[in-house]
Each structure stands twice: as C-alpha cells, then as structure tokens.
Amino acid sequence: MRAIVVGGGPVGLYAATLAALSGMDVTLFEARTGDGDKACGEGLMPLAVSALGAIGVEPRGRPFSGIRYLDATGKRQVRADIGCGLGVRRTELVRALREAALRTGVSTTHSRVSSVRQQDASVTVTAQDGRHDAEVVFGCDGLSSTVRRSAGLEAQAGKSRRYGLVAHYEVEPWSSDVEVYWGSGGEGYVTPVSEYEVGVALLGGPGASFDDRLDELPALRHRLEGSRRVGRSTGAGPLSRGATTPGRGRVMLVGDAAGYVDALTGEGLAVGFVGARLAVDAASTGAFEQYPSAWMQATRRTRWSTDTLVRSTQRRPLRRALLPMASMVPAAFARAVRAATS
Ligand SMILES: Cc1cc2nc3c(=O)[nH]c(=O)nc-3n(C[C@H](O)[C@H](O)[C@H](O)COP(=O)(O)OP(=O)(O)OC[C@H]3O[C@@H](n4cnc5c(N)ncnc54)[C@H](O)[C@@H]3O)c2cc1C
Question: For FRET with 207, which of 42, 130, 163, 285 sits at 20 to 30 Å CA-CA?
C-alpha cells in the first residue's frame, strides 16, 4: 500500500515509521528544512515514552517521575507521582525519530503540501513539487493543518485563546520533577531536558512577551535569575483548534492536526502517538472507516479531563482556589493528575 504522510514533526515521523514497519511504501512530506525545533514543553509522559520504546526510539533526555504544582510565589505546592516520564529537547526527539524513519525505509521530500483530493480508491496530494497519488494519507501537519482544511474537516476554533512561549536556560535542574507554576492568568512549565538545561514553557492569553509572563511568576523568575537563556525563544498559538472528525475515508488526521490537547496535562505527544498507531492499524487492514471512532474512544478521557481543567481554571475564582484546594487533599489531587495522564 502506498502511503503519504504530511508533516515531519514527532507525530508524522512516528506514523511514517509505524506505517513502514507494517509494510507500506511511505513518503513523508515536510515543508521545513532544519532541526525541527518548535514551541513545546518537552515533557514526555510515561505513555509517550513507552510508545517510542515500542519502535526502538530512545531519545537522550532527563527522566522525571512527578509533576509538582506551585503557586506563583512558590510557597504552596502539591506533587503528583506519575511514573517514568522523560524530558527531551524537541530537536533531540525529532533527530531520534528521523533516524528511525530512515532505518525503516521512509522516503522524505521537503515540499509544502497545498491540498488533498480524495477519489474512490486513492488520494491525490498536491505539493510544491507536483502531484502524488497514494492509497492513504496521514495528515500530521500540526495545529494549522492544511490537510484538515483541504479535506473539509476543519472545526470552528474553540473560545480559549491560549498561546505558548518557550525558552531554554543553561542551569543544572533544581528538581527531578516537571514543575508547573500556577499564575493568575497562565502557567509556567519547567522541564529538565539534560543535566545542564531546562526548558521553560509559558502559557497564557495573547499579547504578552516571555519576560512579561515570567514577571507574573516571581518564584520561577527568581529560580532563573543568573542563568543564561540559550537559543531563540519560540511561540505557538492560538492553541485551541481541531477537526470535526479525525478522519474521512482514506484521509486520516493524527496529532495536533486531529485536535490540540492543551499542554496543561502534557499529553499532546502521547495522544499523537496513540492516534498514529490506530490510523496505521485501520489503514493496513483496509478498515479506514474505523479510525474516527477508535480515535474518539482511545483519547476521550485525556481530551475530556484536559478540556475541563482548562475551561474551569479560566474562571478566576476557581483558578485562585485550585492550589489551596489541592494542597488540602494532596492524595486525591495526585490521583486526579494520574488519571488525566495515563
Ligand atoms: C507551549 C507548548 C508546550 C507543550 N508541552 C508539551 C509537553 O510537555 N508534552 C507533550 O506531550 N506535548 C506538549 N505540547 C504539545 C505538543 O507540542 C504537540 O502535541 C506536538 O508537537 C504535536 O506534534 P505534531 O507532529 O502533531 O505537530 P507539529 O509538531 O506541529 O508538526 C507538524 C509538522 O508538519 C509540518 N507541516 C505543516 N504544514 C505542512 C504542509 N502543508 N506540508 C508539509 N508539512 C507541513 C510542520 O513544518 C511540522 O514539522 C506542548 C505544546 C505547546 C504549544
């Protein structure tokens, strides 16, 4: 079976590798050249780590075993044990996945895809370098997916206007957990990615610069004082976008293209990898129509708990009350976090 994967981010590379392993003849189209860097929190939850292990991908990173939530001053905190997570620099994750794709015979073309058109038994993909036919197309082209729009699967954008900004600091990680600093208008996520570097992702409303957002989280700003910021900072958003359905016929959306999962629970990549497996399984058995319901079922709990948490904590009183409430019942809070991240 000839397969085209649109998008060479982590989920596209993962899907391409799985498809090749299942015997498909795979071409991956990626619009950009370079190291694949992008605004991402870089925390791989246990499910994402085991999904990568299943195809022999073991990126270099720094293990973590918990998520620690702190208020903006750092005085109140509550921790949830989550198992074996891994902090990985985005460029390292893409490097390791590119190697796996190459090993399994995926051929990569650097060309932007502009449309997909579906016939009875094939799909035509138009890219900068011409037209290409395949029996299945995996649309893994991220938040602003062209495949989703072109296939008529774009959903109305959600009301939440969250944006993410990410920077890296040269500093020895001070915690073996991922830390989430909880501010009045947004959060700061700190993920150790090596012995000498942490990634800092700041999420919140539109308009503010990285430094403005950091000023709203004094405990985090204090932690980073005196450490060197390395590389350029990256941004993403608005983040709340998705599809009416994750697939129609031979066009299947996977990863952020199928629907963004807010960084609040750190499950974006895990959901993407699970979706990739379901899409490849459906395509390789010819049961294309089974993918949308399989995806909905497999991702329902994570999407529901993440959406509920994002929506409810956008209301100021609840947002303010979350950490005080959680620190009164830490065991119940830890159970709720584990349920959302497994
Ligand atoms: C601030 C922030 C923090 C986050 N933190 C975490 C975290 O800690 N843990 C976690 O698991 N998730 C996290 N996420 C979510 C995670 O980053 C995404 O779920 C993940 O990157 C999705 O991967 P993807 O491959 O689907 O999409 P992308 O990474 O967006 O990749 C899409 C690829 O498609 C290519 N492309 C786009 N259009 C075309 C086209 N027309 N033709 C060809 N190629 C195209 C792009 O160049 C890109 O390489 C975070 C997200 C944000 C914004």
Answer: 42
- Residue 63 counted as domain residue: no
For residues 145 and 165, give the distance between their C-alpha atoms in angstroms, rounded to a whole number: 20
pLDDT of residue 76: 87
Query: Residues 6 or more apart from 293 whose CB is under 8 A from it?
Result: none
Q: Quick check: 105 pLDDT over 90?
A: yes
CA of 275 to the centre of ligand 1 (A): 14
The whole domain housing 32 covers 2-37+89-159+240-311
Evaluate if pTM is beyond 0.85: yes
Given a cut of 80, whether residue 51 has pLDDT beyond it is yes
State the amino acid at position 330 in one-letter form: P
Q: What percent of the chain has pLDDT over 70?
A: 97
The CATH number that applies at residue 283 is 3.50.50.60
Q: Which of 13, 32, 33, 40 to mutate to test ligand 1, by most ligand atoms within 8 A of the CB atom? A: 40
Nearest CA to ligand 1 atom 12: 268
Ligand 1: distance of its center to the CA of 153 in Å? 18
Residue 53 located in a structural domain = no
CA of 280 to the centre of ligand 1 (A): 19
Give the whole-angstrom CA distance, residue 211 versus residue 298: 38
* Ligand 1 atom at minimal distance to the Cα of residue 166: 1
Rounded Cα–Cα distance for residues 342 and 265 (Å):
10
Is the per-residue pLDDT at 195 higher than 80?
Answer: yes
Please state the domain count of the chain: 1
Write out residues with Cβ below 6 Å of ligand 1: 6-12, 29-32, 38-43, 48, 112-113, 140-143, 146, 164, 166, 201, 203, 236, 239, 255-256, 263, 266-270, 272
Q: For residues 144 and 19, what is the distance between their CA atoms, to the nearest angstrom? A: 23
Predicted confidence (pLDDT) per residue in 288-339, tens digit: 999 999 999 999 888 887 777 777 777 777 777 777 777 777 777 777 776 6
Query: What is the 36 CA–ligand 1 centroid distance (Å)?
Result: 10
Q: How many helices (H) and strands (E) does the chain have?
A: 10, 17
Q: Per the domain annotation, does 279 fall within a domain?
A: yes
